[in-house]
Write a structure and sequence with these properties.
Largest sheet: 2 strands, antiparallel
Number of domains: 2
Protein name: DUF2284 domain-containing protein
Number of strands: 2
Pfam family, one: DUF2284
InterPro entries: DUF2284_metal-binding
Strand content: 5-15%
Shape: globular
Radius of gyration: 15 Å
Strand order of the largest sheet: 1-2
Distance between the termini: 35 Å
Structural class: mainly alpha
Number of helices: 4
Amino acid sequence: MSREALEEYLALFLSEKVRDFRLIDPREVVTGEWVRLKCQYGCDGYGMCLTCPPYSPEPQRTRKVLDSYTRAVLLWQPESWRDLRRVCADLERELFLSGYYRAFAMPSGPCELCDP
C-alpha cells in the first residue's frame, strides 16, 4: 500500500477515534534503557502487566522489531489514553484482516484488555 493510500485508510478508520495520527519512519523511534528505568522507579504498576517492563521486550529487541518495518503509525489521544489501547488493538486487527499480516500494535502503558 502506498503512503498516500495508507494515510487515507488510516484517516477513515481513525477519524472518530483519535485526535491525530502520523505516519513515521520506525528508525526515528528512540529506544533506550532509560525507558525501563522510568517505569521501574516511576510507576506503581511496574511488574504487574505483561506489556510493561520487566516483561516487555528489552530495548535491543524492540529496536530489532522496529527495524524490520518500513512504516509506523503514531497515534495521539490525550483525552483518553486508556481508550487508545482498544483503538490500537482494533487497528491492528483491521489491518491484519485486510492482508497486512505483519501489522503489530505497541501501545504504551498497562493493558486493561485482558487479565495477565
